[in-house]
């Protein structure tokens, strides 16, 4: 039986427990986006490639949030206000017209250290 759904996963934060007391290091989250493989192949990926080609001239561009926000290579072109507004508008329209579910799990590393005395080395465990 062929798979029907695809799960994309990304992490925000990191698994290090060393600085769990620091507010900027306290949390680790994993977010999953679930969608039908057919929807991704027939709708999302072609539409996203169209946006990438139009804005960046290259469909191989990986849309990494930090690089986009700080306009790092290859996103320097987003310094142009009009181009950035076009990119934002088209990307948001694509997200609004796509079919998917989002799930997120957040680990409070400070609470993890307090609660699990034997499992403090790695929050994924």
Describe this structure in words.
The protein is of the alpha+beta class and 125 residues long. It has one domain (5-115). The chain contains four helices and three strands; from the N terminus they run E-E-H-H-H-E-H. Strands 1-2-3 form a three-stranded antiparallel β-sheet. Helix 1 packs antiparallel against helix 3. The two termini are 31 Å apart. The model has no long low-confidence stretch (mean pLDDT 93).
Offer a few descriptive terms.
single chain; 125 residues; alpha+beta; 3-stranded antiparallel β-sheet; 4 helices; 21% strand
Task: Supply the number of structural domains.
Answer: 1
Beta-strand share of residues: 15-25%
Rough shape? flat
Strand order of the largest sheet: 1-2-3
Characterize the largest beta sheet: strand count, sense, and whether it forms a barrel. 3 strands, antiparallel
- Give unreliable regions as ranges: none
Helicity, as a percent range = 25-40%
User: What's the helix count?
Assistant: 4
Computed Rg = 18 Å
Q: Could you report the average pLDDT, rounded to the nearest whole number?
A: 93
The quaternary state of the protein chains shown equals single chain
The structure class reads alpha+beta
The counted number of beta strands is 3
Q: Ends: how far apart?
A: 31 Å
Instruction: Tell me the series of helices and strands, N- to C-terminal.
Output: EEHHHEH
């Amino acid at each position: 039986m062929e798979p029907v759904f695809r799960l994309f996963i990304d992490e925000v934060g990191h698994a290090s427990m060393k600085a769990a007391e620091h507010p900027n290091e306290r949390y680790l989250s994993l977010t999953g986006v679930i969608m039908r493989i057919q929807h991704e192949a027939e709708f999302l990926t072609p539409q996203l490639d169209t946006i990438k080609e139009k804005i960046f001239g290259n469909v191989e561009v990986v849309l990494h949030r930090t690089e986009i926000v700080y306009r790092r290579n290859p996103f320097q072109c987003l310094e142009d206000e009009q181009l950035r507004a076009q990119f934002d508008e088209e990307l948001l329209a694509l997200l609004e017209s796509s079919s998917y579910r989002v799930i997120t799990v957040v680990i409070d590393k400070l609470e993890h250290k307090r609660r699990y005395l034997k499992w403090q080395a790695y929050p994924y465990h």
